[in-house]
User: Fold these one by one.
Assistant:
Number 1:
Amino acid sequence: MAEEIEEEISAEQPAEEVSVTEDAPKKKKKWPIVLIAVVVVIAALGIGFFFWHQQPSFCNAICHTPMDNYVKGYYDNASGKLANTHAQANVKCLDCHEATISDQVTEGIAWITGNYKVDASGNIVGDNVTATKAFCAKSGCHDWNAVVVATTDWGGSSGVNPHSSHQGTIACSNCHSVHGTSTMYCNSCHSWKLPTGWTNPK
Ligand code: HEC
Ligand code: HEC
Ligand code: HEC
């Protein structure tokens, strides 16, 4: 045994000495490679996170409550939600919801502290997004003239158009809900045709 150990030591000794003297300059050169590797890995993680963050499934990957209902309605072709109509047109969550750092920090804190409420359907109470004309028309998504034409003489009633009335330009959110049920705002005073799946104002 003792002999074996001695042999091993003596066998290793010269090898180590050689490596110290010969590898010394090489070892120094390895640092830039290690640094580059670290930078590449961090960049890859960053890019990976960036693309993951773009995916609708990112939203409820961790924040099941309250995000599940939004993501489900988005993917479910039977949900009848405008979110799904947009999913079918390949519009992503972040195309509508601009992910500002401050918003994300606020959302993160609200989630961690549980400082939010959800309604019976699972949607957040007190939505802070109002879909204005600009919100829906950004990136040229909706050609307003075409929208007005589409609902001319709405429900067969001559002169009635939810998109052009004595109400002027009102936010789309008055009627259209992306994640919830749309409401025929005009019907708080009139009784124009109610689109399928919509409700009248209470
Ligand atoms: C007063 C209620 C009301 C408001 C406000 C409203 N809409 Fe509509 N919208 C309707 C109704 C009713 C329809 C027809 C039913 C449907 O297609 O869902 C419709 C349909 C549409 C359609 C589909 C048109 C098509 O080609 O069939 C688009 C796009 C649209 N609205 C966009 C908007 C945008 C953008 C805004 C805000 C600038 C807006 N709407 C505001 C009631 C409204
Ligand atoms: C077509 C644009 C659009 C798309 C796509 C969209 N949203 Fe929304 N989102 C809205 C609008 C408008 C509201 C305001 C409430 C409503 O209309 O139902 C809203 C409200 C919300 C809210 C409530 C809190 C707030 O900020 O108002 C959450 C959470 C949310 N969306 C998450 C999502 C997630 C997750 C996805 C993707 C799975 C998504 N949204 C896709 C337009 C969109
Ligand atoms: C706050 C109540 C109120 C709301 C909301 C409202 N209207 Fe009116 N509207 C009136 C009144 C009042 C008149 C005038 C009296 C009448 O003719 O009934 C009128 C008249 C009209 C007329 C012409 C007369 C008729 O009855 O044919 C049209 C068309 C019309 N509204 C469409 C709309 C549309 C479309 C919306 C939704 C974008 C809307 N209104 C929302 C109260 C309202």
Note: The pocket of heme C (ligand 1) is lined by residues 133, 136, 142, 147, 150-151, 162-163, 170, 172, 174-176, 185-186, 195 (CB under 6 Å).
Number 2:
Amino acid sequence: MISSLTIIRAVKICLGVSLLGQAVAAPNSTLVLSAPEVKKVLRHGPWPPVLTSDKFTDAGNEISTSSVAIALGRQLFFDKKLSPTQNVSCATCHLPGKAFSDGVAQSKGLDGLPLFRNSPSLLNARYERWYGWDGAADSIWAQSLRPLLDPREMGSSVDFIKNRVVATVSISRKYIDVFAAQPSSQTAELVSVNVAKAMGAFVASLVSGNTPFDDFRNALERGDTAAASMYSVSAQRGLQIFIGKGECSTCHVGPMFSNGEFGDTGVGFFIKPGLVDPGRHQGIQELRASRFNLLSNYSSAGPLDRQKTSLVTPQHRNFGEFKVPSLRNVAQTAPYMHNGSLATLEAVVAHYSNLNLDRLHADGDQILKPLNLAPNEMADMVMFLQTLSTPVKPKKGLQTSAR
Ligand code: HEC
Ligand code: HEC
């Protein structure tokens, strides 16, 4: 193990030869990264990334960039009367002040019992490939329909949703604007899908702002050593482990700090004796069976988006795999992991540091090994992870944009 002292000594390395080939003078800099490390860091940006798939911010959702649809979706997202109980909305489990997560280990259902899954942040959902910890949905709108109709979440029905839309002037007026149709003349299922699509448009508009990490990364790209030096040495050392011996960036890649796929990190998938959460394995089966996936008649997905769903098939290794979460805004989304079993970032770092290899699948990921980090290295890693969040001022940090 390299001691952090060695790192500090080895590092006063300037970005003398920056990647862009410009010479940068950095005699007194507190930059601790080598040129090859800088190259790896640059791959985690720029932020926000450019959408690659097609013209929709939500796959298969033809209204996803309409500003009226986003306004309608925002109203519906906070509407407790879409639930017959009249006291649950999407925002019950996705709070704007908590990066649209809910701060509890496992969200509670209407029956008061835990749902066994942790509510994820909805920020930057437009850049995800799959939705839910098991990827059982391939678009934001399909994922939104699920809690509406799930008896344990909002407990609604397509008829109930249609009635709410038809009977509420402030909703139906926008609905007619967006969909150019009278909801009363459509099937309840179509109205419900359209409600979910408007919610999808709103959720897809939630993009988080620049973070201290982004400022650092962009300064490195410009070769601006003075600006880069504003980033704490501790965070830099954490970053160094993240892209180096920690192998974290093998799965937490790119601007989202996620490869958009699924993995096994040795978090238990037993819910209680005799009951397991099969994760991705079941997610793929649900996705393929869904009447609301990107291959369905309700989807306007182009060939590229349809392909991701038509090609996916469950494999044995998918059992107990969960989505590699984005680490953006991770400081605001405790507790962690699919089941909320780790309360703090310190606990997550300790989990990776003391990893129990026996808990990884035999045919699972070969990437992870116990890191045995020293206490100061763990503190550095936590410091780094904290720089991935937009400074907490939900209103300001949050940009809502159609594109
Ligand atoms: C009772 C709590 C609860 C309610 C209400 C709820 N959600 Fe969720 N949400 C969750 C949980 C838990 C997950 C993770 C689900 C999983 O892994 O299958 C989730 C996942 C999601 C995701 C996937 C995010 C990702 O990146 O994987 C989206 C999008 C989402 N919810 C949107 C909504 C919308 C829109 C509504 C309102 C119609 C809503 N949710 C209502 C708890 C809730
Ligand atoms: C093999 C791929 C892989 C590697 C390597 C990896 N992770 Fe993860 N990470 C995941 C997956 C998958 C999850 C979700 C696991 C679950 O919920 O059961 C996760 C979850 C997390 C979370 C919790 C985020 C949240 O919102 O709940 C953090 C923080 C995190 N990882 C940081 C790291 C760090 C730091 C490293 C390096 C020491 C690392 N990861 C290495 C795949 C990986």
Note: The radius of gyration is 22 Å.
